[in-house]
């Protein structure tokens, strides 16, 4: 039955796909090639599902297990194991693995414990590749690191992994993990070139010398405003060559370096293919991970982040007190009063007209919905009245038309992806990145949520709890979701860029954005999660759909996972409410993910895929990250050893994993 349903889904899938493509805004050539590729993929997928369906019918008629599975599925009776909260049960952790896979995992973790191997991993991989040749090297990698951490070369080859995980109650977050293997010099060159084009270079210098003064005398009625101290370039948003290689001290996150608009277009296509793979192979339950820095020029995110920070400073100067615009609870009437000294100014009137507000006060000073919808001109949009000078003040430097167009391209790409996700009925999770991009990424994502999360959570944001501001950011965004009536989806992480953030803050002379200690980060994580759960509970108690708030606890920390489970129990939120899910990387902490999935919780594995030779940087990062979490490796190794031994003693070395679980 499950396969019948999936074949039927496939049929509607292609018509949906056609619809998406007809809506898509990319050019005709791309559209045709995409359509052909999608059609080919659909046919292949359909063939594959039909084959599997036929074989399941064959086994069913011969009385084999698949029929039991189908019957159980029909009745909706997924088996449910009791959950060992100490996550110490090797059988529960590894019942989805063959003994060969367990041995491979053990060897990989042994290798990850060697400082020499980890420190020189990328060099060694290249040496082996040169010695063995591509084919033998690929074989060696598949028997070790690649086989353990990566699901397969392409979206077809990953299907067995996805299906196996699914049969053990676990869903995928797909990530096409191909990374360019750039040298540090090349990465720095690209970053500096992309961040400071010749024009912006001049602009950066001029702006930092003179501040952002709106010199558009033709539209501005008041005389030019004098430069104020607040107009000086904010150090966290300046470009510094020392930190141009954004991979510096980052092991658990991927970095995209901007090359040109065509590369961003290709990245968009890859994300859409991920969505299709997720939709085809998981029947709507999967997620695709998206990085905004892959979709456009990072300079634009940097500039927009600066605008957001300046807007907060502006509100602080105007009305006093910390926080963002929403937390000030000011009304348009209040602002009219602040600007009264500017008289009957048409720019001020226009500005006030574009403010987003409701009965509880002002939500945004700028028309963000317009920015993610249509052809907004950024440098024209981010202007505010300055009562001190009686003039409009620009919060960003003048952006050249070409760069404005690049920004619109980035937004168009994101919209195309979100529309595809909506049509395919799958979800996208926007990753959180460095703090100098993050305010813009978060703002844009929230507007995407407002636009696409009207009926359910399709777009998810990510919040890094190592940030001092994490809790207040989440509270504000939850409040916006409530006031603007959209579904709020969030992935909570601790954060992947800590060392780089701290080094950059110290070198460029701005306040460290990271919590002072690991304990403070954990506290922030737990406090933020508790607030989300509290709001979910309120929704439940009020008889509203609890899933208006959906949270992913993305952590390898078992204390945090336990904390979430205990809080769920305490507050009265069950897995069936489908509001809390858990996420870990493929090949890491199976002892957390698998028991969660098998006991009926919503559990996800972050699934990287891509050709062997092109995911080496990803594998390298996994090795480094694992070296940094020795306690977790120790536990993983101990559990693997116990399970291998148990199978040996019980004569189960040829154990074949067959799950009958159905993910919630
Ligand atoms: C499914 C998934 C998705 C992810 N997506 C993202 C993403 O979009 N963006 C992103 O940035 N990261 C992301 N991460 C990575 C994540 O942020 C963490 O780097 C990683 O998971 C380690 O944190 P932990 O809670 O798993 O483990 P733990 O070992 O408990 O925590 C380690 C983390 O604690 C924090 N920390 C350590 N020491 C200190 C200190 N002295 N002061 C303050 N904080 C400290 C750091 O963030 C460090 O990475 C993701 C992780 C997963 C599993």
UniProtKB/TrEMBL annotation:
GO biological process terms on file: L-proline catabolic process to L-glutamate
Pathway assigned to this chain's UniProt record: Amino-acid degradation; L-proline degradation into L-glutamate; L-glutamate from L-proline: step 1/2
UniProt domain Proline dehydrogenase: residue ranges: 366-633
One Pfam family recorded for the sequence: Pro_dh
Keywords, ordered alphabetically: FAD, Flavoprotein, Oxidoreductase, Proline metabolism
Keyword Protein biosynthesis: no
Keyword presence, Heme: no
SUPFAM superfamilies from the UniProt entry: FAD-linked oxidoreductase (SSF51730)
GO MF annotation terms: FAD binding; proline dehydrogenase activity
Region (Disordered): 58-83
Cofactor(s) listed in the protein's UniProt record: FAD
Biased composition (Polar residues): 58-75
Enzyme Commission numbers on file: 1.5.5.2
Example of a GO cellular component annotation carried by this entry: mitochondrion
Coiled coil stretches, renumbered: none
Record field: catalytic activity: L-proline + a quinone = (S)-1-pyrroline-5-carboxylate + a quinol + H(+)
Role this protein plays: Converts proline to delta-1-pyrroline-5-carboxylate.
Family under the similarity heading: Belongs to the proline oxidase family.
Protein name: Proline dehydrogenase
Organism: Pseudolycoriella hygida
UniProt lineage: Eukaryota, Metazoa, Ecdysozoa, Arthropoda, Hexapoda
Gene: slgA
């Amino acid at each position: 039955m499950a396969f019948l349903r999936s074949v039927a889904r496939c049929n509607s899938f292609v018509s949906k796909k056609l619809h998406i493509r007809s809506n898509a805004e990319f050019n005709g050539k791309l559209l045709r090639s995409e359509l052909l590729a999608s059609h080919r993929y659909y046919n292949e997928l359909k063939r594959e599902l039909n084959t599997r369906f036929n074989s399941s019918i064959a086994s069913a008629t011969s009385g084999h297990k698949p029929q039991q599975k189908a019957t159980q599925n029909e009745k909706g009776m997924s088996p449910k194991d009791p959950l060992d909260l100490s996550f110490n049960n090797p059988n529960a952790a590894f019942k989805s693995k063959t003994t060969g896979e367990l041995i491979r995992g053990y060897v990989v973790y042994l290798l990850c414990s060697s400082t020499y191997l980890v420190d020189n991993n990328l060099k060694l991989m290249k040496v082996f590749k040169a010695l063995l040749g591509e084919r033998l090297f690929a074989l060696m990698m598949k028997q070790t690191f690649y086989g353990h951490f990566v699901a397969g070369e392409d979206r077809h080859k990953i299907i067995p992994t996805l299906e196996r995980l699914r049969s053990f109650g676990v869903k995928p977050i797909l990530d096409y993990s191909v990374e360019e293997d750039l040298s540090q010099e090349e990465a720095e060159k690209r970053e500096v070139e992309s961040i400071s084009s010749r024009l912006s270079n001049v602009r950066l210098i001029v702006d930092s010398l003179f501040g952002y003064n709106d010199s558009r005398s033709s539209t501005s009625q008041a005389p030019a405003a004098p430069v104020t101290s607040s107009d000086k370039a904010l150090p966290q948003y300046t470009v510094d060559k020392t930190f141009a290689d954004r991979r510096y001290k980052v092991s658990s996150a991927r970095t995209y370096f901007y090359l040109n608009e065509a590369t961003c277009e290709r990245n968009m296509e890859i994300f859409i293919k991920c969505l299709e793979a997720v939709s085809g192979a998981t029947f709507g339950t999967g997620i695709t991970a998206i990085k905004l820095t892959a979709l456009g020029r990072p300079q634009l995110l940097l500039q927009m982040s600066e605008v957001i920070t300046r807007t907060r400073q502006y509100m602080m100067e105007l009305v006093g007190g910390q926080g963002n615009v929403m937390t000030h609870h000011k009304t348009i009437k209040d602002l009219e009063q602040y600007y009264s000294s500017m008289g009957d100014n048409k720019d001020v009137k226009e500005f006030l007209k574009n403010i987003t507000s409701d009965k509880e006060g002002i939500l945004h000073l700028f028309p963000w919905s317009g920015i993610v919808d249509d052809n907004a001109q950024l440098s024209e949009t981010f202007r505010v009245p300055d009562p001190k000078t009686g003039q409009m003040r620009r919060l960003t430097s003048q952006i050249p038309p070409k760069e404005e167009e690049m920004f619109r391209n980035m937004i168009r790409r994101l919209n195309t992806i979100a529309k595809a996700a909506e049509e395919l009925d799958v979800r996208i999770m926007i990753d959180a990145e460095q703090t100098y991009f993050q305010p813009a990424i978060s703002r844009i994502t929230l507007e995407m949520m407002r636009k696409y999360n009207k009926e359910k959570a399709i777009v998810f944001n990510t919040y890094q709890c190592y940030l001092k501001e994490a809790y207040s950011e989440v509270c504000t965004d939850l409040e916006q979701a409530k006031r603007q009536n959209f579904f709020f989806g969030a992935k909570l992480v601790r954060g992947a860029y800590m060392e780089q953030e701290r080094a950059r803050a110290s070198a460029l002379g701005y306040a460290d954005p990271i919590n002072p200690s690991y304990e403070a980060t954990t506290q922030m994580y737990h406090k933020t999660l508790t607030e989300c759960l509290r709001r979910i509970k309120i929704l439940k108690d009020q008889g509203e759909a609890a899933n208006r708030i959906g949270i992913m606890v993305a952590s390898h920390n078992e204390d945090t996972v336990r904390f979430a489970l205990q809080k769920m129990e305490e507050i009265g939120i069950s897995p069936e409410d489908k509001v809390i899910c858990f996420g870990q990387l493929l090949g890491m902490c199976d002892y957390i993910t698998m028991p969660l999935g098998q006991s009926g919780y919503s559990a996800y594995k972050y699934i990287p895929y891509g050709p062997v030779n092109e995911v080496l940087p990803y594998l390298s990062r996994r090795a480094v990250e694992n070296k940094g979490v020795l306690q977790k490796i120790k536990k993983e190794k101990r559990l693997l050893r116990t399970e291998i031994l148990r199978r040996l003693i019980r004569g189960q070395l040829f154990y074949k994993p067959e799950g009958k679980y159905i993910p919630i």
